[in-house]
Amino acid sequence: MMTSDSDPSRPDFRKARMSILRFQPLCNALIRLVLGTVLLGSTVAISYAEGREAADSLQLALSGFRLLVDDVNGHGSIYCCGQPKRAADATTTAVTLAISPTLTTMKVGEHATIAIAVSTSTSVDGVAAHVDFDPTALQVTEITVGTVLPQVLQNKFDNTRGEIDFTAGKLTAPFPAGNFELVYITFLAMDERAGTTLVFAESPLRNSDATFGGVSILDGVKDGTIVIESAGEPTNTPTPTASPTHTASPTSTASPTPTASPTHTASPTPTATPTPTASPTPTASPTPTASPTPTASPTPTASPTPTDNPGSYLRVSSISPTQGDNATVTSIVVLGAGFQEAPTLQLDGFALDNVNRINDQQLTAVVPPGLPVGVYDMLVTNPDGDSVVLPDAFIVTGSGIFINSVVPAQGLAGFEVTLNLYGSNFAQGATVKIADVTLPTTRISESYLRITVPDTLIVGTYDVSVMNPGGGGAIAFGAYTVLDLETSDDLYAVGSQIWTDPNSLRANTAGQVRLTVTRQGGKQPLPEINVQFLVNASNIESGGRLLGRGSITPLWPRSSANTTSVVWTPTLPGVYTLYAVIDPDNLVPESLESNNVVSRTLTVLPQAADQIAPRVDRFTINNGAESTSALRVQLDMEASDPTPGSGIQSLLYQEFEFSQAANQWVPVRNSGWLDYTNSYTNFDWDMLASPGIKYLQAWAADRSGNISTFPFKAGINYIPPSDRVGRNLAHSYRYSLQAGEEMAVTVTPISGDPDLYVWTPNLNAPPYVSNLSGAAVDAVTFSADANGEYQIEVYGYSAAEYQITVQVNATATSAQSSTPNTGDANLNKAPLTEPVLSRSSVPSDQQVLPPVPVQAEAPSTPTARNLYLPTITR
Question: Residue-wise over 408-438: b if at least 16 C-beta within 10 A, else e?
Answer without folding.
Answer: bbbbbbbbbbbbbbbbbbbbeebbbbbeeee
